[in-house]
């Protein structure tokens, strides 16, 4: 007897999605989460009399996946709100702001007023990038493989496939620089691409982030009503309706290995749970380095490779605050002149440094220091969704900051850095705002480690290019099979990567279901 057919470790959105697909396939699935509630970094928590998203609240890629329909998340309470613009782009140096719209015609109309010399280049970019972005979305929907990309070539998408592979080998700077020659058109893609991954934009392999803009033209950005956690709440409901079980407060500390295969997990209190398969929807580095009781001979080289890697450090922080009045950006008037019906506070404001300042930020991060002018992602989510705060006339501030090193010189406790970040944000406004911050909290890398079991505050992120995924490099991350019988990987550390995406959870579930069926150990599929 086993405690479950499959044990999923980690209740972030990928773990929940993986579990929900397995449960809907009539596979007895138990999900274990170390915290007292599921959701991980996609969750929304109550604090300071308001509701705060643990990480950023904008959802794009998951809306391009079939997850929402296939798991019937709308029937479980998921509803998306859509800001008029996807985001607005501001610059520390006071450069001309611009707004990004889902509709490319509307975006080009705005650029014609603010950056007229870039319009032709952006049109050329759209011609090339929209087919690439469409192909990327298709590739993300399944376990990647070279035959898959070859099939796309043979079905008339050869040009997009060749460009995708070429961009995969290049850098973002080089790719976007071939279309746009003003850095203020490039840096927002850097801020929401390589900077979020912790990588510089001149690094080969970052070029695929050039599809960022095109993807947002294909998929409208939205926010779940009630906060990002409304997504994970809906997935949990779908999982449990299908017969899945959730056990919170259950911290896995070891994988039980017998006869060269993973047979279950051991919890912090010594309890052992058995299963036919385990899906680790968490940091793969910790799985290989900390969790294995015994290493099967066939996996020793792979495990040794992971153990030789230095543990990555976290580099993101976030300030949550309660405001007694709304701020107003100095740049709002310029944006509203082009788009008079736009509420500039609805979308996220991406506040970019110059390329030189970004390079300095990467260098200082390695020295344990925060750049004088960091990348900021700022929004007031309660403008679009008043349910996030219960106080009349009050609003919620969300301010993400890159790059903030885990090993900060002098340490995070007592650091003045969070106050300085608020000051940098306030400098973008046309009137004082700091006196309107009634309460706030800073989520720094040390807190992410303590509260979310993120080793050294690091958020795992698949760093390989689509080319690497297609040819099967690091197969444990791109094919979801760990190299150890009975153990599978999912989560943001596996293909296709970070953000609220969900594809890794869905893809991993299909691999596990296939393997269980092949072994004859799954029950008949539930009709959908």
Structure in a nutshell:
The strands form four sheets. Strands 1, 2, 9, 10, 11, 12 and 18 form a seven-stranded mixed β-sheet that branches. With 528 residues, the protein is of the alpha/beta class.
Describe the structure.
The structure is a single chain. The chain has 528 residues and is α/β, with parallel strands linked by helices. The chain is 36% helix and 18% strand. Strands 1, 2, 9, 10, 11, 12 and 18 form a seven-stranded mixed sheet that branches. Strand 11 (261-267) and strand 12 (272-280) form a beta hairpin. Helix 3 packs antiparallel against helix 4 and helix 4 packs antiparallel against helix 5. 52% of the residues are buried. Mean pLDDT is 92; it is low at 521-528.
């Amino acid at each position: 007897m086993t405690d479950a057919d499959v044990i999923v470790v980690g209740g972030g959105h990928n773990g929940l999605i993986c579990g929900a697909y397995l449960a809907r396939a009539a596979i007895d699935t138990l999900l274990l989460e170390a915290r007292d509630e599921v959701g991980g970094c996609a969750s929304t928590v109550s604090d300071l009399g308001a509701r705060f998203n643990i990480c950023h609240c904008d959802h794009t890629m998951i809306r391009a996946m079939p997850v929402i329909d296939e798991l019937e998340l709308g029937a479980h309470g998921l509803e998306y709100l859509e800001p008029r613009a996807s985001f607005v782009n501001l610059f520390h140096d006071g450069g001309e702001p611009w707004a990004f719209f889902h509709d490319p015609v509307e975006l080009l109309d705005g650029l014609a007023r603010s950056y007229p010399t870039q319009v032709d280049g952006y049109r050329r970019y759209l011609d090339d990038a929209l087919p690439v972005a469409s192909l990327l979305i298709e590739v993300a929907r399944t376990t990647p493989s070279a035959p898959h990309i070859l099939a796309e070539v043979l079905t008339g998408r050869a040009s997009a496939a060749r460009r995708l592979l070429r961009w995969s080998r290049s850098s973002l700077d080089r790719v976007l620089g071939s279309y746009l020659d003003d850095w203020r058109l490039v840096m927002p893609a850097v801020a929401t691409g390589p900077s979020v991954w912790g990588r510089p934009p001149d690094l080969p392999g970052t070029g695929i982030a050039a599809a960022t803009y095109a993807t947002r033209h294909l998929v409208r950005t939205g926010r779940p009503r009630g906060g990002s956690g409304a997504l994970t709440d809906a997935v949990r409901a779908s999982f449990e309706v299908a017969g899945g079980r959730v056990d919170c407060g259950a911290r896995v500390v070891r994988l039980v290995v017998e006869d060269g295969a993973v047979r279950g997990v051991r919890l912090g209190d010594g309890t052992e749970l058995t299963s036919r398969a385990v899906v680790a929807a968490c940091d793969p580095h910790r799985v290989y380095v900390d969790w294995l009781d015994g290493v099967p001979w066939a996996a020793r080289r792979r495990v040794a490779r992971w153990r030789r890697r230095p543990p990555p450090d976290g580099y993101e922080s976030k300030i949550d605050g309660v405001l007694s009045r709304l701020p107003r950006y100095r740049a709002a008037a310029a944006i509203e002149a082009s788009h008079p019906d736009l509420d500039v506070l609805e979308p996220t404001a991406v506040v970019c440094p110059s390329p030189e300042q970004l390079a300095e930020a990467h260098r200082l991060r390695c020295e344990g220091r925060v750049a004088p002018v960091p990348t900021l992602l700022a929004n007031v989510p309660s403008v679009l969704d008043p349910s996030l705060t219960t106080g009349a006339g009050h609003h919620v501030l969300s301010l993400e900051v890159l790059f903030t090193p885990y090993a900060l010189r002098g340490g995070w406790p007592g650091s003045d850095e969070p106050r300085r970040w608020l000051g940098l944000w306030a400098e973008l406004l046309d009137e004082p705002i700091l006196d309107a911050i009634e309460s706030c909290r800073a989520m720094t890398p040390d807190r992410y480690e303590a509260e979310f079991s993120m080793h050294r505050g690091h958020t795992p992120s698949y760093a390989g290019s689509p080319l690497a995924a297609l040819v099967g490099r690091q197969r444990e991350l791109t094919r979801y099979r760990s190299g150890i019988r009975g153990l599978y990987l999912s989560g943001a550390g596996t293909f296709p990567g970070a953000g609220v995406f969900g594809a890794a959870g869905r893809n991993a579930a299909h691999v596990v279901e296939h393997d269980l069926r092949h072994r004859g150990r799954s029950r008949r599929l539930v009709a959908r």
